[in-house]
Design a protein that fits this description.
With 184 residues, the protein is of the alpha+beta class. The protein contains three helices and four strands.
Length: 184
């Protein structure tokens, strides 16, 4: 019986040793897999964190550019409003020219008109006529409401010297140039 107990003990020790080796190998494999999984998860975390950081940086860059664009546009709108106000003030200033300067302006235009045609002069209601007309120019009984300056008409052609129109023509010519120079 002693032999049987020894044999059983040896068999038991052999299986325990074998199970211990298998368990150690399984534990080693599990630790390797665990380390690989941790490394893979760390890599995935780092990649996702970098992707999130890149997305945040890109979003911040886009939003910053939007803010800069909006601010620039606001400044341009303000500058344009100031320029338009200056053009309006120019019309008001021209409307208030002293009689002598208005007569000089009128005479300089009349000198440029061909003398062989008869012209009808229509004044804006804000431009009283205080000077003599040449023989080839007759004054219309009508006035142009809310306007300053004058219009010469002959043979169906009108030569518009209303101050608002003159300033509007200049505005169209110079507005884009002025805005470009203000942007710099």
């Amino acid at each position: 019986m002693n032999d049987l107990a020894t044999f059983t003990q040896q068999l038991k020790e052999k299986h325990i040793g074998e199970l211990t080796r298998k368990f150690a190998a399984m534990e080693k494999d599990a630790n390797v897999k665990k380390e690989e999984s941790i490394a893979a998860l760390n890599d995935k975390f780092v990649k996702e964190q970098k992707q999130i950081d890149d997305t945040i940086a890109q979003t911040q860059q886009i939003e910053s550019q939007k803010i800069r664009n909006h601010a620039r546009n606001q400044v341009l709108v303000e500058k344009q409003q100031v320029m338009l106000q200056i053009f309006d003030e120019a019309v008001n200033h021209l409307s208030q020219l002293p009689t002598e300067q208005m007569a000089q302006f009128f005479n300089s235009i009349v000198k440029q008109l061909p003398q062989d045609k008869q012209y009808v002069l229509t004044c804006g209601e804000k431009t009283p006529l205080h000077w003599e007309l040449p023989e080839h120019v007759t004054l219309s009984d009508e006035t142009l409401p809310q306007q300053s300056g004058f219009v010469f008409s002959a043979d169906g052609i009108s030569y518009n010297f209303l101050f608002q129109t003159l300033v509007d023509d200049l505005k169209q010519t110079y507005l884009s140039e002025l805005l470009q120079s203000l942007q710099q």
